[in-house]
Amino acid sequence: MKKYIYIFILILFSMGCDEFLEEDTRGILSPDGFYATEAQANAGVFGLYNIVKSNPIYGRNILLYTTYGTDDMTSSRRFGDANTLLDASLSTSNLGATVGIWNNLHNLVVNANSVFTGVTNSDLSPVIKDRILAETIFLRSVGYYHLTHMFGSVPYHTEDLPIDELAVLGETSAEDIVAELVSDLKATEDNLPTSYPSSEAIRATRWAAKTLRMKLLLWQNNWAEAEVVGKDIINNSGLTLEPNFADLWDNDVDGFTSETIWQMIYAFDLQTSPITDFYVPRLRDEPADQADRQALIDALNANGDGFTGFGLLIPSDPFIASLAPDDTRTPLNFTQEYEGIALKFPYTPKFQNFDQQTSPRFNHRDNTVVFRLADVYLMLAEALNEQNKGDEALTFINVVRARAYEPDRPNLIGLDQAAIKQVISDERRWELAGEGHRRYDLIRWGTYIETVRNYDYGSLWDPSGIQDHQVLFPLSPTQVELTPGLQQTPGY
């Protein structure tokens, strides 16, 4: 029994100690008799959102591990998580943050199954029950979406299993898991509301579930169904592209825009957003010319700003070189100055917040946008192009480009399928830089290994030795040894 408890602790280590004091440790909340009211069921669901918001998932690590090691970002200096990806050095003895990602995604799945069982067995009204079950299925699907993209075949379960059964659960292929996720989401997504009040804005709507299903359909090369879903979101959600790209990243509106489909909500002095510190400069590194240092400090103080971050996530030189001066996204993707003072490193302003009153170091309140409408437009264009509907695909690309370029560029017309593929890749790179989509895009297109192998991350890293199996992440050898049904990721 000790072995099984250790396995469970590996899966659920981020929950803390208190949860293990109860005899039944299958989930955060007991499925037996807890959900007597809608408020209690909602409490169970919000426990799942707290897992999703945690550092190993959307708080930090998944965003780092889907951004580093792509053709967007590099690092200002060597440090652990960056090195493993920019050097392509992930291995069973150099796991980086992959263990935390694995554990917390399984934590999400285990507890989603517990909530699902509790709500299923409750006496809640059918309407409330169907809504909360659909929300739980969505959150469980988020866990498996990342697990399959990062690790391939993994243990798959949709029941609230006891510890001894979890320990010996065999693996299911990524293809089979994705097929189940698509089926589950399709069957339940319309039970979700089309919107929530701002006080509950973290909760997944119908459109968030459809966006996740669309991403999975692209993974399956199910272009026709992805087209249907994408048009449904664009035509029926009531969401519109924010007219000004910069307004998507306005800290004063906390990410509540006409374009946001799903986001993580963080709060000053409560549950804060740690990823922001990776984008905010570190004052000791700046400015480029030390003769300007006092002028920089004075300018920061005058604005109530501070360079109090880590300054680690920075745009790479090839990415900067790809940016166009007439693209309104460029100033949000790259700057190398503050109030006219030249900085040593380039930075990505759209994720920065320098405000020392409401967003100081380790206490940022900035929301993390997970899904937004421009992503759907470009996914729809991809689905159409793969069906040889190139002219229609260009109409959706042109909508995104119309917002991006000032003055407006002429609409793209008459491109062949290969040229449209390249346009989609470029536009997704510039539109969604650093938002956690690029690694999965490159893997889906079959270009990840080639891109990394030939990419210039700067003189501190050499990714040329990346191997084909590194498209996926390794598992902890200890966890593989202790879990009879678990196999090491092939190639490691």
TrEMBL record:
The keyword Signal applies. Transmembrane segments: none annotated. Keywords: Cell outer membrane, Membrane, Signal. It is found in: Cell outer membrane. This is RagB/SusD family nutrient uptake outer membrane protein. Residues 97-211 form the SusD-like N-terminal domain. Belongs to the SusD family. SUPFAM superfamilies: TPR-like (SSF48452). InterPro entries: SusD-like_N, SusD_RagB_dom, TPR-like_helical_dom_sf. It comes from Splendidivirga corallicola. Residues 347-492 form the RagB/SusD domain.
